[in-house]
Specification:
This protein has helices at about 10-25, 35-45, 45-55, 55-80, 90-100, 105-110, 115-135, 140-165, 170-195. The protein is mostly helical.
């Protein structure tokens, strides 16, 4: 029997503390205005501890983004969103609820500079998911798919960012329906163009 090494809980706790401290600081200012010393003070750790886990602040943010993207893509795949390209509401509704409850991702999307990085990561991952389905169909124009997905992912990220900036004045359900209708109607047009 193989000896499977579990992650050290202390390491996990320290990394989570660093990530939460960065999220808290991002509520107040941009990433480039945050120093490692300041982050360490907030996390109540020393600089050596920080460098044992991360090479720089951007790496902390990358880990936060990657964890969130992995979580949403797992849901995307689990719910088999691609099985019905004319109804994205269940996925968008879940995504909106998660975003409403997920402080770290909300903070990142709310930052004018940082949301561009995560949008690109999300778009790349969605392209991988969609390509798995679409590459099986030789009649599909992959260039068209790329532009369609670019438009949709940019639009979703922008709508969520505006929603967060407005302190979520629109209800989650209304926002989810709005986004879904735009995607569904665009998706119908896209699917009809492929037929």
């Amino acid at each position: 029997m193989k000896n499977i090494k579990k992650p050290d809980r202390r390491i996990k706790r320290t990394k989570n503390l660093i990530k939460q401290s960065l999220t808290d600081l991002l509520k107040e200012r941009e990433l480039q205005d945050i120093s490692i010393t300041e982050l360490c003070d907030i996390a109540d750790i020393n600089r050596k501890t920080f460098y044992n886990h991360f090479p720089n602040i951007r790496a902390v943010l990358d880990e936060i983004e990657n964890e969130n993207i992995e979580k949403y893509l797992a849901y995307f795949k689990k719910e088999d969103v691609l099985s019905d390209l004319t109804n994205f509401y269940p996925f968008i509704s879940r995504l909106t609820t998660e975003l409403d409850q997920n402080n770290s991702l909300s903070v990142i999307l709310n930052k004018s500079d940082e949301h561009l990085y995560i949008k690109e990561k999300i778009k790349k991952q969605l392209l991988v998911c969609f390509n798995e389905v679409f590459t099986k169909n030789p009649n599909i124009d992959h260039e068209t798919i790329f532009f369609y997905l670019d438009f949709i992912t940019a639009g979703i990220a922008s709508v969520y960012q505006e929603w967060l900036l407005s302190d979520k004045k629109m209800s989650k359900d209304k926002l989810s329906k709005l986004i879904s209708e735009v995607i569904n109607n665009g998706g119908k047009t896209f699917i009809q163009a492929l037929s």
